[in-house]
């Protein structure tokens, strides 16, 4: 391993950005604990690499979370936690199935939260560490059919913003990563959809339903390049609060931020009328 190697714990390494990040970390000689619900899926990643260990981890299982973090702590502690595990779900808000919504939040919000709470005692004791939460541009604006997915990502960003302010004085860093569209399996097997469609949403939600999504294999983002950028950035001394990944992310979020600014300006006078009258 490199003299500057950190110990990384990365969730959701069986595919997508997590898989690409794990490969890059291993290649760079970092000490990596890669995880998946079925660790057999990680064999090709770790075989022949003494700096990589595959762990079973379902982030919705309290037992798995505790066991995985305990194993890494026994090996010296978690220097970098990357909360990457998650998936998408397409449905109009009215169509959302309660059980599937609950599972989505369990995986995309409460799972990462459990990981954060599990690594923080060690990071606090060492007064060092980095927590990376992979969210999405869907945390900045919600498209028709992606309300529930966006809600999970909005939630993670709110938690991350508060967490950063809480732990920064303790020497712990927090980074939010907002990818645009990357050429992964997100739009394929990682994307779920409602079983029942309401006809009235055919024009708004219809084009974005799982069965109608044709973006797989055409996304502009390269996971390998994203992984290299993340490893280099996290290895440095300065982190942004939020990092957009992809030129599409910069364009989409930039347009949304500008639109929000214009709306704030347009309605400032109305907003201000709710104050108590100024003392004469």
Automatic annotation (TrEMBL):
The keyword DNA-binding does not apply. InterPro entries: NAD(P)-bd_dom_sf, Sc_DH/Rdtase_CS, SDR_fam, SDR_oxidoreductase. It holds the Pfam family adh_short. GO terms for molecular function: oxidoreductase activity. Keywords: Oxidoreductase. The keyword Cell wall biogenesis/degradation does not apply. NCBIfam families: PRK06180.1. Belongs to the short-chain dehydrogenases/reductases (SDR) family. This is NAD(P)-dependent dehydrogenase (Short-subunit alcohol dehydrogenase family). It comes from Rhodopseudomonas rhenobacensis.
């Amino acid at each position: 391993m490199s003299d500057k190697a950190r110990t990384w714990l990365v969730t959701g390494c069986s595919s997508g950005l997590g898989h690409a990040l794990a490969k890059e970390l291993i290649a760079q000689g970092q000490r990596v604990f890669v995880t998946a619900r079925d660790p057999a899926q990680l064999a090709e990643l770790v075989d022949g690499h003494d700096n990589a260990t595959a762990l079973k981890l379902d982030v919705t299982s309290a037992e798995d979370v505790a066991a995985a973090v305990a194993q890494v702590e026994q090996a010296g502690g978690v220097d970098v936690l990357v909360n990457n595990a998650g998936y998408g779900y397409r449905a109009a808000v009215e169509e959302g199935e309660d059980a599937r919504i609950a599972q989505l939040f369990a995986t995309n919000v409460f799972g990462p939260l459990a990981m954060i709470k599990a690594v923080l005692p060690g990071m606090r004791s060492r007064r060092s560490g980095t927590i990376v939460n992979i969210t999405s541009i869907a945390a900045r604006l919600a498209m028709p059919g992606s309300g529930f997915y966006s809600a999970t990502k909005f939630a993670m960003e709110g938690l991350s913003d508060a967490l950063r302010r809480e732990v920064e004085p303790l020497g712990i860093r927090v980074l939010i990563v907002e990818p645009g569209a990357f050429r992964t399996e997100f739009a394929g097997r990682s994307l779920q959809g409602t079983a029942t469609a309401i006809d009235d949403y055919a024009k708004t939600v219809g084009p974005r339903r799982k069965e109608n999504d044709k973006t797989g294999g055409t996304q502009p983002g390269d996971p390998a390049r994203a992984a290299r950028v993340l490893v280099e950035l996290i290895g440095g001394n300065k982190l942004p609060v939020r990092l957009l990944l992809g030129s599409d992310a910069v364009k989409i979020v930039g347009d949304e931020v500008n639109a929000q600014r214009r709306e704030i300006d347009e309605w400032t006078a109305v907003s201000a009328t709710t104050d108590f009258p100024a003392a004469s």
